[in-house]
Amino acid sequence: MTRIPGNRRVRSIAGLALAAALAASGCAQATGATRTAGAVNLGAKAAPAAFTHPGVLVSRSQLDFVRGKVNAGAQPWKSAYGQMMASRYASLSRTPKPRAVVECGPVSNPNHGCTDEREDALAAYTDALAWYITRDGRYAEKAVQLMNAWSAVLKDHTNSNAPLQSGWSASVWPRAAEIIRYTYTGWTSDAVTRFAGMLRNVYLPKVINGSNSNGNWELSMMEAAVGISVFLDDRTSYDKAVARFRKRVPAYIYLSSDGALPVAPAGSGIDTKAEIVKYWQGQSTFVTGLTQETCRDFVHTGYGISAISHVAETSRIQKEDLYPEVGERLRQALGFQAKYQLGAAVPSWLCGGTLKRGLGPVTEVAFNALHNRMGTAMTNTQKLTEQQRPAGTNNLFVAWETLTHAENPA
User: Are 107 and 157 a contacting pair, CB within 8 Å?
Assistant: First the structure.
């Protein structure tokens, strides 16, 4: 049996007074006819004094909770675990398919390594979870094989979807790497260094400066940047990513306290009402819980909501809890989308009376944080979450969140 190193106990500065103030106010309101995310008074959050490991999306205590539930045969964790282990991502015969340059055009056309990269990253994370739960070293070795194969080859991402592809893949790699690096002794220091170099030199430059595209792009890119920063113990990049994330969330999810119009993304050049309406997919009536992509489709909306919850969850593990700041927006967005995902009639003022449903398995992390930990009522989200269990994967960057986060108090 492979020895599991002891947990690192670290302390950090959390900025609790700011969090409480933001929680009470539901985020500050910008003034004036034209507002940008930069105009919202978000205050200053302190980066963790040191990083907690493993600490990207799941912590050691969360993993211990999951392992205990699976070993006890408790539901819904048992069925969620069975779902994961039956998936192709848990196959010990999987052969990695790395390449030096991954080229991804619009909707991954051309697809030169796009699917292979995303799915190998998901497989590494799946194997890391399987290792931790089973203590079967074969799964740890498979995760190491996948990470080593890509870090030995990958040099760049190209074409129009390069930033998004980088964001999706690099949201998942650090989750796997954190678990393996800090709970398994078989990943050599040279291989860890090479993998860290891939994250820093190939992925981070593609995501750290964000995007003025649809909000799910930048939110996924910030999720990747935050996870990379934790793995690299890079406080400068972590601060930069969190700062951009904190500006983007108010520009993605509308609250009535924002004023008559949604907040515009910082640096986007969007100034007028007409430009904001166009950016919000032609929607001109704004209600609490609406997202910038609701009228595009629920699939992309789910990507954005999921990325927000992932960053908030990682920040909580890192003792810089962002839930008090973004929680009300998350709660309202999930409730609004869940209502219609569950089949409510669509009013004529909303997206012309037509919605493209398909939110995906994206509710568990935020529902657990806001409802189970913080005690917030979330009727629609609870119904949808329980209806969708066990939540699987979207084959991009969301995976096994009933297993990892359902009713997880840690």
Answer: no
Give residue-wise pLDDT tens across range 61-91: 999 999 999 999 999 999 999 999 999 999 9
CA-wise closest residue to 155 among 232, 76, 100, 95? 100
Handedness of CA 160, 164, 165, 167 (dihedral sign): positive
How far is residue 229's CA from residue 42's CA, in Å, rounded to a whole number?
A: 21
Alpha-carbon gap, residue 122 to 139, rounded angstroms: 13
Nearest Cα neighbor of 303 from 407, 178, 198, 213 is 213
What's the pTM value of the predicted model, to 2 decimals? 0.89
Distance CA 42, CA 316 (A): 18
123 contacts 169 by C-beta, under 8 angstroms: no
Please tell me what DSSP assigns to residue 372: I
Tokens of 6: 């002891």
- β-pairing verdict for 111-112 and 101-104: antiparallel
Measured CA to CA, the distance from residue 65 to residue 67 in angstroms comes to 6
